[in-house]
Amino acid sequence: DLIPNILPGDHISHFDLNKLASTPMAVYNKEKVLILSPMSKFLNQYWANLLKLTYPRELIELGFIVPRNSDGDKVLNFLEVAIKQVQTGPKEKRFSKITILRQDNDSIRSQKEKDRHALSIQKERRSSMALARNSLLFTTLSPFTSWVLWLDADIVESPTTLIQDLIAHDKPVISANCYQRFFDDSKKKESIRPYDFNNWVESEEGLKIASNMRDDEIIVEGYANIATYRPLMAHFYDANGDVNTEMQLDGIGGAAVLVKADVHRDGAMFPPFPFYHLIETEGFAKMTKRLGYEVFGLPNYLVYHYNE
Amino acid sequence: DLIPNILPGDHISHFDLNKLASTPMAVYNKEKVLILSPMSKFLNQYWANLLKLTYPRELIELGFIVPRNSDGDKVLNFLEVAIKQVQTGPKEKRFSKITILRQDNDSIRSQKEKDRHALSIQKERRSSMALARNSLLFTTLSPFTSWVLWLDADIVESPTTLIQDLIAHDKPVISANCYQRFFDDSKKKESIRPYDFNNWVESEEGLKIASNMRDDEIIVEGYANIATYRPLMAHFYDANGDVNTEMQLDGIGGAAVLVKADVHRDGAMFPPFPFYHLIETEGFAKMTKRLGYEVFGLPNYLVYHYNE
Ligand SMILES: Nc1nc2c(ncn2[C@@H]2O[C@H](COP(=O)(O)OP(=O)(O)O)[C@@H](O)[C@H]2O)c(=O)[nH]1
Ligand SMILES: Nc1nc2c(ncn2[C@@H]2O[C@H](COP(=O)(O)OP(=O)(O)O)[C@@H](O)[C@H]2O)c(=O)[nH]1
Ligand SMILES: [Mn+2]
Ligand SMILES: [Mn+2]
Predict the structure, then answer these.
(1) Is the pLDDT of residue B19 over 90?
(2) How many domains, in total, are found in chain A?
(3) Best of A103, A154, A199, A303 to mutate for ligand 1, by most ligand atoms within 8 A of CB?
(4) DSSP letters for chain A
(5) Domain CATH number, residue B236
(6) Which of A210-219, B44-53, B115-124 has the weakest average pLDDT?
(7) Residue of B nearest to A87 (CA)
(8) Are B98 and A142 an interchain contact pair (Cβ–Cβ within 8 Å)?
(9) Chain B partners of A130 at a C-beta cutoff of 8 Å?
(10) Is B26 in the pocket of ligand 2 (CB under 6 A)?
(11) What is the pLDDT of residue A185?
């Protein structure tokens, strides 16, 4: 009565979605995790950090999507070498499946209905990222995936227990706080600073701005020209605080986000068009809430973005 | 340089989405078609009609989702017998893959944010159908799917060339006209009548009604209490007209709809929440348009709904 129940020889797979758990007992239950990374640059530190994660590899599937340009070509070459090394190594250290997608020609560019001039560069970039994330998601999610970890390819450092730690909170969607290491010239020492400002709580001001916008306008958090006064999770980090502190969020970034697969299966995707004046990961958070789920962030749980 | 390019032994699959065609030369190009049917009742006539379709079976994958109740149990039993017969028969007559999903407990019922009382029965039913369609779509679409045919499980008659015929129009989304056979008592003979009223063109009146609605209200076409005066494709059928006549649509039903897989991959799903005051298949049409694609219907191309 377990899933998948595959009738031998005749290619039928049965999946009972109700028996598919996403629980804090994930390792014990052998719950499968799909790690998805859009990747325009292959960073050794990202790969090294990925390999240090301690969730059992036989329960992990990986999915990558690379742009179709010379950057993408380079990524493919690095990725293949790196993957070959792991997947030809000891059986118990191999990932259960790896999918690499080459992005489609940016279909949004060839679309009829779009309003080129209304799109700021930022809007185009985010919209194109949303299309890439959707392609990756729609083609790699399987009936037996329990969790999806969105992990940007420029996240170069995280706790080795990242997956288990996020799973332990047992939330529909939960986002880590994304910081960056840098050398503080004034203090002459290594330090850290906030990096991702897309994890935020909605504000009165934000709602007011949205209500006065035309339908196809968007707010992109982290740009000074729109003062939303939204509380940003990046600023809630407390070095002495409990690492498990949770806060409810209304917008999220894509740096390191764990999603119960059922949330995606219900239809949560990354809107490439303005959805309540939000797109991509921020629009995803809004859509998740429209589906009736709650979205959380961990202000004191840090992952680190690459610093070039 | 073709897809999929699978490195042997190490579980990497490469897919170049740009080389994945969805063209009128589908059979020649060996383009893969995914047929998706939500199914609360197993009808022999549906199955017989499915088996009569002439698109090559080795290029067809099937996906079903059944409710988790006694109706669903019955469907599963019938479906397994029917499938076993085909898949243990001659190799060249087998479908390339079959997935059966058992629906999750209706998660929308256990959701916090929903407004129970604002939901009419129709809204709940359509919303629950949307969740079922999304689960089916998100878990069966693969990187090598070119086309998705949504075919309701109570469509009991269609041309045997249904897939090729719809493909020939080379549209992002195209919907057949869904009629029903019945015995006309007044004329004492077999006749046909329109069945699906969800294929429609937006009207001034429809837009006006929507603009005066609260955010969470929906218009469901085909109910007399809201007079939208939307032109319905069901009424455009002309028995003597060209079967290839196309018309642009703004809302569609789910009876028999062919979708280029890229449209879904870009993010087009079935909104279980009001999206521009539309849900499920009607919301899907709107979302498709927001993604920059056009939606079409074939008023003179008929498929037939079961008549109990
Ligand atoms: N497939 C794909 N991935 C991209 C593209 N641009 C950026 N990425 C990846 O998407 C993630 C986020 O992009 P990035 O530019 O770093 O965004 P930021 O850090 O939020 O400014 C990173 O993992 C990038 O490697 C693109 O055009 N295509
Ligand atoms: N999985 C699933 N399928 C359903 C459910 N209700 C209806 N269906 C199927 O969904 C399709 C459309 O549903 P139906 O009730 O016939 O809608 P109508 O013909 O538009 O009134 C048919 O293929 C049904 O067999 C349900 O609760 N779960
Ligand atoms: Mn980045
Ligand atoms: Mn029906």
Answers:
(1) no
(2) 1
(3) A154
(4) --S-EEETTTTEEEEEGGG----TTTTTTT-EEEEEEE-SS--HHHHHHHHH--S-GGGEEEEEEE-SSHHHHHHHHHHHHHHHHHHTS-GGGS-SEEEEEEPPS-GGGG-SS--GGG--HHHHHHHHHHHHHHHHHHHH--TTEEEEEEE-TTEEE--TTHHHHHHHT--SEEEEEEEEEEEETTTTEEEEEE-----B---HHHHHHHHTS-TT----TT-TTS---PPBGGGG--TTS-TT--EE-SB--SSEEEEEHHHHHTT----SS-BTTB-HHHHHHHHHHHTT--EEEEEEEEEEE---
(5) 3.90.550.10
(6) B115-124
(7) B10
(8) no
(9) 267
(10) no
(11) 96
Higher pLDDT, B180 or A20: B180
**Would the CB atoms of B104 and A291 count as touching at under 8 Å?**
no
How many contacts does A have with B, using Cβ atoms within 8 A?
182
> Which three-class secondary structure state does DSSP give residue B232?
strand
Cβ–Cβ contact A109 with B under 8 A: no
Report residues near ion ligand 3: CB below 5 Å: A 154
Please give the ipTM for the structure prediction: 0.93
Q: Which domain holds residue B229?
A: 23-305
Does any ligand 2 atom lie closer than 6 A to the CB of residue B282?
Answer: no
